Amino acid sequence: MIGIILYKVLVLLQPNVRIVDIEKLRFPIGKYAPGEIKFDEIEKWIEDIANLPSQLLDVLKDIDVEAMNYTYRPEGWSIRQLIHHLADSHMNAFIRFKLALTEDNPTIKPYLEDKWATMHDVKEEPVESSMLILQGVHARLASVLRDMSVQEFSRKYTHPEHGRSLDLAFTVGMYSWHGKHHLAHIKSALKFGRAFWN
Ligand code: NI
Q1: Cβ of 112: how many Cβ atoms within 10 Å?
Q2: Which pLDDT belongs to residue 3?
Q3: Could you tell me the pTM of the whole model?
Q4: Ligand 1 centroid from CA 62, angstroms
Q5: Cα 83 to ligand 1 centroid, rounded to whole Å
Q6: How far is the CA of 183 from the centre of ligand 1 (A)?
Q7: In the chain, which residue ranges form alpha helices assigned H by DSSP?
Q8: Among residues 111, 119, 72, 70, which one has the least CA distance to residue 93?
Q9: Fewer CB within 10 Å of terminal CB in the chain, N or C?
Q10: What is residue 8's predicted lDDT score, i.e. its pLDDT?
């Protein structure tokens, strides 16, 4: 609430500045919408996934505890929540890849990310534990992905919410995008500072 009021004040104080587009704050790198996927693209996505933990550590290295509360849009998640959310999401991702590589089109278990993101461990705990999770999970996931044959990227799993099967090529791209998407949120939050404080 306070974040929204501050945001409106900020906009009112800067009438000449183009009103910040909330959609742009929400999707700083755009949405994930791959065209026809080529194998060299997949190789790049795998490296994105391998590199995410070190990129996060780099962005976080000089920030203090207070800055962990900064958010990238009014009512958006804090930097602390974003890091813990990445750990929650990518632990699930790792399991989805392993299931799809060892079972025939398994149905995966979705989870309610908004509810996970407002639990005590995500809202209050320091991010070090999730940085360790991300370092471990991304090292393991990169190892799985680098060992996959071209054919294995066509393996599928079923997402019961969408009611459709997704293949692993699409999914590698999705998690590469997901890491960059939230990394961009963290960079925005650091830029905006207390503007959207909540
Ligand atoms: Ni997310």
Answers
A1: 8
A2: 54
A3: 0.89
A4: 24
A5: 10
A6: 10
A7: 2-13, 22-26, 39-60, 79-102, 113-116, 120-123, 128-146, 168-192
A8: 111
A9: N
A10: 55
Tokens (6 digits) for 53: 């933990």
Gap between the Cα atoms of 120 and 124, Å rounded: 6
Over the chain (198 residues), what is each successive 10-residue block's mean pLDDT? 54 51 93 95 98 98 93 94 98 98 97 96 96 98 98 97 92 98 97 82
Task: Tell how far the Cα of 29 is from the centroid of ligand 1, in angstroms.
Answer: 13
Q: Ligand 1 mean position to 178 CA, how many Å?
A: 6
Length of the chain (residues) = 198
Tokens of 188: 């925005």
State both tokens at 42. 């997949």
Q: How many CB atoms lie within 10 A of CB 145?
A: 22
Ligand 1 centroid to Cα of residue 174, in Å, is 10
pLDDT at 163: 82
Please give the structure tokens belonging to residue 30: 């755009």
Tokens of 34: 């791959």
Angle CA(100)–CA(33)–CA(79) in degrees, nearest 5? Answer: 85
Give me ligand 1 centre to Cα 16, in Å: 33
Query: How many angstroms does the Cα of residue 85 sit away from the middle of ligand 1?
Result: 7
Selection from 132, 129, 146, 128 nearest residue 48 by Cα: 146
Q: State the greatest distance between any 2 C-alpha atoms of the chain, in Å, as a whole number.
A: 57
> Phi/psi of residue 77, each to 5°?
-70, 150
